[in-house]
Specification:
The protein is of the alpha+beta class. It contains 2 helices and 8 strands; from the N terminus they run αβββββαβββ. The protein has 2 domains: about 30 residues; about 170 residues, Beta Barrel (Porin), CATH 2.40.160.20.
């Protein structure tokens, strides 16, 4: 009789423990905080049509980390990215050359999930981005414009876009525009289209 009672108590304890562990695992899997890494392509342009130079979009890349905090259908996402951008510069006198610059970018975005489920989300988002230029190779601009010395270290811009999450994979398409000129003396504002793929670690 005592043995049966002990077995019954043990079974009850195991069931309660299993239920607790299962509930804890579910709550962790639905955590509102996500961390992951991402990378992709930049298609950038220096918008120099006002001068005797013709600037065209050119291919670069970006990669880094992101974190997302879900608030029901809203979310806030911050990123830290290394980004290399290029723009093809054309002129009748010197032909074609490339302006290239590398920077650390920190976008802070607010998004809304138009469609939300456990394994599939469709999103729209927008926000600001701070860029710190590490180096630039824009000798063609220095040759043509005496006022251009180098890209300013700090720049501020904005981003708008749309994305989809499939399981732990996340895909984004976004447009980035500049709110400040590339240098204090040189009035030109770069813009970019970005395509990226990311993976949420959790």
């Amino acid at each position: 009789m005592k043995t049966q009672l002990k077995l019954k108590n043990l079974m009850t304890l195991l069931l309660v423990g299993t239920a607790f562990i299962t509930n804890e695992a579910k709550s962790q899997s639905k955590s509102p905080i996500h961390i992951g890494f991402k990378g992709g392509a930049n298609f950038s342009n220096l918008s120099l049509a006002k001068s005797n130079l013709d600037a065209k979009y050119s291919l670069g890349y970006h990669g880094g980390l992101f974190t997302r905090v879900d608030i029901s259908q809203l979310y806030v996402q911050g990123e830290v990215l290394y980004s290399q951008k290029k723009s093809k510069i054309e002129n009748s006198s010197f032909g074609k050359e490339q302006a290239k610059w590398s920077s650390i970018e920190v976008p802070v975005l607010v998004g809304y999930k138009l469609l939300q489920s456990d394994n599939l989300n469709f999103r729209i988002f927008g926000g600001g981005v701070y860029s710190y230029v590490l180096n630039d190779k824009a000798s063609v601009l220095k040759q043509v414009f005496q006022s251009f010395q180098k890209f300013d270290k700090s720049n501020v811009g904005y981003q708008v876009g749309a994305g989809v999450d499939v399981g732990k994979l996340t895909f984004d398409l976004r447009y980035e525009g500049a709110l400040t000129n590339i240098s204090k003396e040189f009035k030109a504002r770069p813009n970019s289209f970005q395509a990226s793929i990311g993976f949420m670690i959790f």
